[in-house]
Input
Amino acid sequence: MSHSALHHRVSLLALLPAVLVLSACGAGSASAQTPPAKPPVTPPVTGACVSGTWTVVSGTPDEKVVQYETDHFAFRWKDGDVNKADAVAAGQYLELVWKTFITDVKFPEPYCDTASKHKANININPDSGLFGGPTGERDMGMWVGPLALKDHWGLAHEFTHALQGSTRSFRDGKYVGWLWESHANWMAHQMPEYRDEVHCSELLVNFPHLYYGSTRDRYCNWQFLEYIKDKYGYKTVNDLWANGLKPDQAGYFDEDPFSTLMRNNKWSIADLNDEFGEWALRNITWDYVDEAGEDQGPTYRAKYGAYDEREGQRTLRVTALDPLDLGQRRFAVPSSWAPQRWGYNVVRLMPDSGASKIKVDFRGVVQSASATTTLPGFTNDTASIPAPDSDWRWGIVAVQSDGTPRYSPLMGGADGDMEFPLKAGDQAVYMVVVGTPSSQQKIQWDQAYYSIYRYPWMVQLTGAMPQGFEAGAPNPTASGHRHANGGGWVASGAHVDASVYVGPYARVLGGTIKDNARIEDHAVVRGGTVSGNAIIGAMSVIDDGVTVKDKAVVRTTFLGIGGFERGTELSGTAQIIGDAEVRGGPKLSKGVYSGFVDQDFAERSQTGRRPERTGARSHRRRRL
Output
C-alpha cells in the first residue's frame, strides 16, 4: 500500500454499523514490571523554523485556478461549482486547524527548514468526496466535494493526511497504513470541538483481543496515542512523523511505527510491552489524564459505556473463560479469544462472599515455534515466519466505590502469582491480560489471520470466580432453557430444533436453528437462520438478515458477519473465519475467507483452510 497516493476518509456510514456512529468512523519467571522512566525532553535539532513566505504552488496537472487564499491554504475550483462563502468558511476553519495542530499540538511544521513555503492546495470538485495527502515530495493537498466544505471533523482528519505526507515518513511501507488513519482520527479529536466525542473508537473497546494496529479497526484504535500523549506529551507522538525514516534512508520500506517509537525513546521491546500493559489496565476505567490535568475519562466512560453493557456490538468486549478444572477453579482463555500482539483480554472477576483478597496463579501457554513452516503465498502473507516468542503482561484492576481505579503491580512472563487485596465498596474487579511477545512482531497491512500469533493463557483463582461461574450466576436471559443436546442456552422466542447441537457456552437468543446445525464454543445467535449441517463457532455473532446453511462454517473473532450490512448468505462449503470484516451482504458458496470479505472475493478465496501459526494449545503441559 503506497502512502504517496491520496488518502481518503471512508464514509462513517460505510465504515460502521449505525450503533457505532458516535459523531458526524516469554517465557520465564514472573516479575512486577516497572514502567519505563519518562524520556528526557530533547530540543528540536533545527530550533525555530526558517522564516519565509507562504506561496501558491501547482499540485496536480488537472487542478483548477486559485479562487481564494488564506495564510496557509489555496482554494481551487471551477466557476459555478462552489458557493464562495462555503470556501471562505472552510478556509477560516482550516486556519483554526492549522493553529491547533501546528501551534498547540506542535506537529512538525511543513517546510520548517526552508524559506520557500508552499500553501496547501484545496481542490474543490463536485466529483470529489473528501481526500487528503501529499503531492510531489512534500507538498500538501486536499480534494473536497462542495458539501464536504462544511464537514469540520472531516477537514481536520484529511488535513492531517496532508501534514503526515509533508514529513515524508511512513509513505510506502507494508507496516504503516493503519497509522495514517488512526493518527488522523486522533488528531481530529485534539480539536476543542471534538474533545468530547470518540467517533468510531469504540471498535477497539469491543474487540480488544485483536492486535494493536489491526487493519480491521485502523480508523478506530487511537487510544494508545492518547495514552502516550498523556504520559509523555504531544512530542512523543509527533516525533513518530518527525523522526520516521525518509525515502532516501536505509530501512525506509521496512520501517514500523513501533520501531520508530522505541528508537526515539530508547526503549527496548520489554519497555514497549510494559507501556501496552499499563495502557490496557488504564482502559478499565479510562484513566486518561494528561500532564496539564485534563481528564478525558468522563468522556470515554460516557461514550463507550460500562463493561457490563454487552448488547449489540458490545457482545465480545469482556472475555469469557473456559473451565479446565472447575473444582480447582482452573480456567483458560478460549483459543480464538486469546490476545494477538498487544491485544488484550478483559475478564470480570466475581469475588467470593466475604473474601478479603483474590489470589491469582497465572500461566502463559508458551509456544516455541510456529505451528506451520510454510504459508500459501497469498499477497498478504509474510515472506518469513518469525518465532512467537511468547510473553504476556497482566494485572488486576478494582473499580473502587468512588469509581476510581486501584491497580495491582504490572506482571510479566509466563509464570506469575499475585494476591490482590479487596476493599469494602469495590464495585468491580477485572483481570487484564495482554499479549506481549518478547521480540518485535511486525504485522503488515491486512496480514492474513492464520499468520498472526495468538498468546493463550490460563489461570487458577482463589477467592473469586470468572463471571458466569460465580454462585448464583444469572442465566443469559430472564426466560429460556438449557438445550438438551449440548447444554447451551436457548432464550424464549428462539426457534431451535431438538436435533440441533448448542454447546455449553453457546447462546441462541433469537433466530431459527434447525436440522443438524451446530452452535459451538462461545458463539451467539441473535437472529437469522442456520440450517443443514452448518457450524457456527469461535466467537461468531449471527444477527437478523444472515443465512448460514448446507455445510457452511462461521468461526469469527470480530464483528458479526451481518454487523456492517444485512444479507450475508453462506451455503455449500463456504467458510468465514477469524477477523473477518464482511461487507455488503455477500452470497458465498465455496472458499475460505478472513480479513476483508465482500462479493468481489467470491472467486478469489483460498480453497482450503490454511494451517495457523498459533499451535493447538495443550494446557496439560503446563502446571498451575
Summary: The first helix runs from residue 12 to 15.
